[in-house]
Design goal:
By secondary structure, the chain is an alpha+beta fold. Helices cover 32% and strands 20% of the residues. Helix 2 links the parallel strand 2 (31-33) and strand 3 (57-61).
Length: 328
């Protein structure tokens, strides 16, 4: 398949998804226990592969990132989002570098309306001038430490996928090197806005419209009771059947991204997901989550073991995906 054909297929995929679809599916989101990872690596690899190839989504338990560390990251995120708008604006998003604060600027091709949220992105090489050091002492150090823990966990999971794909040990870790200027993995703090009780939400407005992720692997931290994430895998996308993903403080929800789908010659699927707006009777308070996007270094070359697609750098791949979504 040529890159042109691939790009057109991606464009068609997201634009025809739309925001419709209220049917629900009871498909299981499997939970993978990472206890004694080194001793159980072969067993865990099989469980991860089975879950990922089935639905593209799975959840990690006993993952090694201590709950106080996760709680601290959420506390730091809440402190940042509580800052005045003009203070946050001083740390505004650097276009094309995925770093800094944005609010109501992300428009999904599937729905054509802005996601109802604000976010703060941390991409290590591009953070000059974006840290709120003057108002949140220690925020930078704690956030970078948390990002490092997420990256290490993501590399464990990706290492298991490398085993199944027949790739060398450490293959994905070398392609996601935080010490390099080419590093483009991102930690993203998210704040979905509260909805007034008497507000009527238009049908085309979503907390996050239907989309796939551009990266290799996403780790998503959620809070107890703050639901709304839904996944629509495989053939269910045609029928618009969505499976709710239950949030929990101690659980990390993971999904395969488009980059790894290509790198695996389509053996690992990147599937649609969204965050629905509150419906009648739903909790309308704010929703908070934190995502880590393991996105290969800009100069990493993406080429699957079977060479189904031409080789492409991660930087060119991201440009291609953005063009497929927005150059219409």
């Amino acid at each position: 398949m040529t890159d042109t054909t691939y790009q057109l297929a991606e464009l068609d995929k997201e634009t025809r998804m739309g925001g419709a679809g209220t049917e629900t599916s009871a498909r299981e989101i499997r939970r993978i226990d990472l206890t004694d990872f080194d001793a159980r690596r072969a067993e865990i690899t099989e469980e991860l592969w089975a879950a990922a190839t089935d639905i593209g989504f799975f959840q990690l338990v006993n993952h090694g990132i201590e709950q106080p560390v996760v709680d601290g990251a959420f506390a730091d995120a809440a402190a940042f989002f509580a800052l005045p708008e003009d203070t946050k604006a001083r740390h505004g998003l650097k276009k094309g570098l995925n770093s800094g604060w944005e609010s109501m600027t992300q428009v999904r091709p599937s729905v054509g309306t802005p996601d109802q949220k604000e976010s703060y992105q941390v991409t290590r090489p591009h953070m000059d001038g974006l840290w709120p050091d003057d108002v949140l002492p220690g925020f930078r150090e704690r956030t970078l430490a948390f990002e490092a823990r997420c990256r290490d966990l993501a590399m464990r999971v990706l290492g298991c996928f490398a085993d199944r794909l027949g790739l060398p040990e450490g293959f994905f870790a070398r392609a996601h090197d935080p010490a390099r200027a080419q590093y483009q993995s991102t930690l993203r703090m998210l704040h979905y806005f509260a909805v007034p009780e008497d507000a009527e939400i238009p049908a085309d407005v979503w907390r996050a419209g239907a989309h796939t992720d551009f990266d290799c692997l996403t780790l998503l931290f959620q809070r107890d009771g703050q639901g709304g994430l839904q996944v629509c895998p495989g053939k269910e996308a045609e029928a618009q059947e969505w499976t709710p993903v239950e949030p929990a403080d101690a659980v990390i929800t993971c999904n395969i991204g488009d980059m790894l789908m290509r790198w695996s010659d389509d053996r690992l699927p990147s599937n649609f997901h969204r965050v629905k707006s509150p419906g009648p009777g739903d909790d309308r308070s704010a929703r908070h989550s934190i995502a880590f996007f393991a996105q290969a270094d800009r100069d990493a070359v993406i080429e699957g073991p079977e060479r189904r697609y031409p080789p492409i750098t991660a930087a060119d791949y991201i440009r291609q995906r953005i063009a497929a979504n927005f150059a219409r």
